[in-house]
Amino acid sequence: MNLLRAAIIQMNSQPDLDLNLQNAYRSISKAAEQGAGFITLPENFAFLGDEKSRLHLAETICKRVTTELSQWSRELGVSLLAGGYPVKAKSGKMYNRASLFNPKGEIEVSYDKIHLFDVSLNKAESYKESRYVERGINGPIVSNTDFLPPIGLSICYDIRFPELYRKLLEKGAEIICVPAAFTKPTGKAHWEILLRSRAIENSCFVIAPAQTGLHGLKRETYGHSMIIDPWGTVLVNSGTEPGIAIAEIDLAKLREVRNKLPSIHHRVL
Fold first, then answer.
1. Whole-number Cα distances in Å, 262 to 190, 254, 257, 265
2. Is 135 left (phi over 0), alpha (psi -120 to 50) or beta?
3. For residue 216, what pLDDT is reported?
4. 48 pLDDT higher than 90
5. Sign of the torsion angle spanned by Cα atoms 9, 12, 16, 19
6. Domain 3-265 has CATH 3.60.110.10
7. Which are the catalytic amino acids?
8. Measured between alpha carbons, how far is 179 from 156 in angstroms, rounded to an integer?
9. How confident is the model over 33-38, as a mean pLDDT?
10. Which pLDDT score, from 0 to 100, does residue 55 have?
11. DSSP 8-state class, residue 210
C-alpha cells in the first residue's frame, strides 16, 4: 500500500457519552464520504469529564465504544482508531486504551497508555492521571495488518518520551498515531514541536487527532490536530474548531526521506 487517505477528527467532547458518540459518528461518516480509509478519533472522544466520573462509567463507556465502533467500521468499510477510552483494570482503576478497528469491525491491536499525566502546571491547573488510571504494560504496539501500513500507537503525554517512538520504529512503524487531549498551556508551548520532532527523528508520518476547547466548566484543550510527513512538514492543522481534516499519506515520500537522509540507520546507541 503506497497511498492512504487519512482523516483526523477534532472534537470538543463533554461529560455526555450519548452526545459524544453521536458527534463522532457524524464526523466519521463525513470523513468516509470524502474517501478517507483510515479515520482517527482523539483521546477521551467518548467522554471527557473528571476522572472519577470516567472511572465510575468505565464499563458502560467501554461497552458502547467497542460495540459501536465495530459496527461503524464495518458499515462504512473503514479502519477506525478509537483514540482513548476507559477499560476497567483488576486493580479497580482503569486503563486509558487506544484500539484500532479494521473494516471488518474487528480490533486489530490495542494499546494501554504507559506514561501518565501527573503534573502541576500552576496553582489553578494540576492533574494526577495515576490516581484513577492504571499504567499500561502492553507497549510498544505496532499493527501489522492487510488493511493499513504498520502503525505505532501512543496516547497524548507519551509524545514527551522519544524512547517509546524509537521502539515503535524498531518494530516497523511507518505511521505513528498520537490521539490527545493536550492542555492549552502545554499545547501552545510544545504540541507542534513535539509532533514534528517525533516525525523527523523517526522518518515517520505522525497522525495526531486532538480535543479542543472547553470541556465542562474547567478543563480546556489546545486543539490543532495535525498530520505531519516524515520530513516534518505539517500537511494539515485543524486549528481550534471541531471538525475533520484529511491528508494523503504517500509512503513513497517515507521511502524517499529514509533514502535521502538515512539517519535512522546511522544510530550508534
1. 26, 11, 7, 6
2. beta
3. 84
4. yes
5. negative
6. yes
7. 43, 113, 156
8. 6
9. 98
10. 96
11. B
Q: Are strands 118-122 and 125-128 parallel, antiparallel or unpaired?
A: antiparallel
Count the residues in the chain. Answer: 269
- Identify the pLDDT of residue 259: 97
Q: How far apart are CA 87 and CA 259, in angstroms?
A: 41
Give me the residue spans of the domains in the chain.
3-265
- The pLDDT tens digits for 136-150 are 998 799 999 888 999
Q: Which three cell numbers stand for residue 78?
A: 473503514
Q: Is the pLDDT reported for residue 212 higher than 80?
A: yes
Integer angstrom CA distances of residue 204 from 51, 57, 81, 197: 32, 36, 18, 10
* Cα atoms in the 13 Å half-sphere on the side-chain side of 255: 7
Residue 236 buriedness (CB in 10 A; 0-12 / 13-18 / 19+): middle
Q: Provide the whole-model pTM.
A: 0.97
- CA atoms of 132 and 26, how far apart (whole Å): 30
Peptide bond into 140 cis (omega under 30): yes
Listed in sequence order, the residues at least 6 apart from 156 whose beta carbon sits closer than 8 Å to its beta carbon are 43, 84, 113, 117, 178, 179, 180, 181, 182
